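Homework help board

Subject: predicted structure for assignment chain

Our instructor gave us this sequence and asked us to write out the predicted structure in token form, then describe one feature. I got the tokens but I'm not sure how to describe them. Can anyone check?
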Amino acid sequence: MISRRPLLAGLLALTLPVPARAAAGPRLAVIDWAAAETLIALDRPPLAISDSGYFASRMPFDLPPGVVDIGPFWEISLEYLARLAPDRIIAPASALMMTPRIAEIAPVDIVPTETRGSRLDLAADLARQMAAVAGLAPESAARLVEGTEAALAAAGRRAGHSSVLVCVPDLSGRLFTLYGRGSLPDAVLARMGLANAWTGPVTALGTYRASLEELIGMEEATILLVEIASMRPRTERMLRTSALWHAVPAVASGRAHWIGNFYPQGGLLSARHLAGTVAAALTQG
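My token output:
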């Protein structure tokens, strides 16, 4: 008996659009949002990406017209991907392990996930790899990297000198995800000439789960709360009624601000966006 789910998936794939071949460059299907944003920054948008809705919710720009969705990274539509007939597929090693059959559709380029330097160095490595995959000269990646460095330096000059804590509060208002060593915010702050207020232990992703009480000891830090739109109203209510929150030095002295969401595993465009957001928050009246 034919399984109902694969049959329905195959029928659905037949109804989805197949974009016409672009005038320049290979047709790239991307199962990595940092790689996708990097290709867009290089003016070589991909043919398709995974989970375009999530991408749109985390990125500071709109997805270019014509880029199609091939499903979430953990459940790629193989039927649709095959119909699209990409020249290459760009994915992290984890996606290839979860869906090894993508390698039967097109050659797979694995995105870098480790570097000896900072998260910005990793993003620069990704820019160079994406330029090569897209058939661009190395100068294209170099211009993107240099432009990002200049943008971060300019944002740092606007922001002045400060100790900054970038964090995501949870719904209870009592726990906070702090970005520390190895994270994109830490790398961006460093290139801006700002000190990251959290220098303590972190996970492999460069984050640390802190209690509200731990923030009270950060006397010099300006706190930047990352907004998750669906969570902010409830989180604000909890913080507003919290005596402990009002005892945090940054809160008591008016140095706690909300900033827009960003993609913490993003590339150079995400870094630029975050730097601009941080500078705007630190210079607001």
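Reply (TA_rk): Your tokens look well-formed. For the description, you could write something like this. The chain has two domains: 4-111, 160-282. That's the kind of observation they're looking for.
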